Amino acid sequence: MPVETDDEPRLEAWERRTDYPLTALAVLYLAVYAVQVLATRPGQAWWWWLDAGLWAVWAVFVVDYLVRLALARRTWRFVYRHPLDLLIVAAPFFRFLRLLRLVAAISTLGRVLRDDFRGRVGSYLIVSVSLLSIVAALGVYEAERDAPEASILTFGDSLWWVLTTITTVGYGDLSPVTTEGRLVAAGLMLAGIAVLGTVTAAIATWFLEQVGAHDASEAVSGPEVDHDRARHDELLAELRHLRSRLDTLESERRSSEPAPG
Q1: End position of a domain, from candidates 112, 143, 178
Q2: Residue 138 and residue 197 in one domain
Q3: Average pLDDT for residues 125-132, to the nearest whole number?
Q4: Where does this protein reside within or beyond the cell (predicted)?
Q5: Which of 103, 167, 181, 218 could form a disulfide with 143, with the two C-beta atoms 3.0–4.6 Å apart?
Q6: How far is the C-alpha of 114 from the C-alpha of 25, rounded, in Å?
């Protein structure tokens, strides 16, 4: 993912050159993993070939991370600001964590999204939730399908579980029993909270924009607005005249009263 500051020219140049190739590789990674989970089982010949391909792609991601780490001027700051990349590289035994490298695809898609801020957030949300849902469904299905006492036995079950989990509904009819499946669930729950927060913020922003547009339309000058302002000025003038008249009458009343004693 691109760095947030502009004081890393070598790192930014490397990321610009590798952005699209790594995105294509990440999409290929997801496709190969989906075929491995849905069409093969451990021990089969094709499963081993597909797994070797996944390891090869993961090795490319490791090389990319190491190159970026070497190009960064401030190594510790780079590590601190890219925790997911480090986790994905350092924990290949958790298959679903390796798939999180697909955030590179979201970063690249951001280049062609609309310039409107709300539209960009909505596009990010749709793409990221879709990718996260597919990855989580594949990961939990692979972890649970052969586990004793598992309730998620088909890919359809895993998709339903992802939907109820990421929306924080949580019916409880399906739940993972393996350690890897529960790790997927934990990440999905956190993602669901983030999704709800993003949706709430987008709705609040939309309401504020509508209220601002309404106030701006009322502030625009026009024949009706000018008429109302003229009427308002007339009423104020009449009130000032009445106040002046009352003050005059009060002064006359006081002057007409006999002096005490």
Answers
A1: 112
A2: yes
A3: 77
A4: Membrane
A5: 181
A6: 25
Q: What is the pLDDT of residues 137-148, one digit of tens each?
A: 988 898 898 888
Total domains in the fold of the chain: 2
Q: What is the mean pLDDT of residues 17-31?
A: 82
The reply to whether 232 falls in a domain is: no
Spatial separation of the C-alpha atoms in residues 110 and 60, rounded to whole Å: 23
Give the DSSP H or E segment for 239: helix 223-256
Residue 238 falls inside a structural domain? no
CB burial readout 228-256, b (16+ within 10 A) else e: eeeeeeeeeeeeeeeeeeeeeeeeeeeee
Distance (Å) of CA 51 to CA 31, 32, 57: 12, 9, 10
- What Rg value do the Cα atoms of the chain yield, rounded? 32
Please give the residue range of the domain that contains residue 205. Answer: 115-215
For residues 178 and 105, membership in a common domain is answered with no
Task: Work out the number of other CB atoms within 10 angstroms of the CB of residue 173.
Answer: 10
* Residue 92 within any structural domain of the chain: yes
Q: What is the spatial distance between Cα 167 and Cα 188, in angstroms, rounded to a whole number?
A: 9
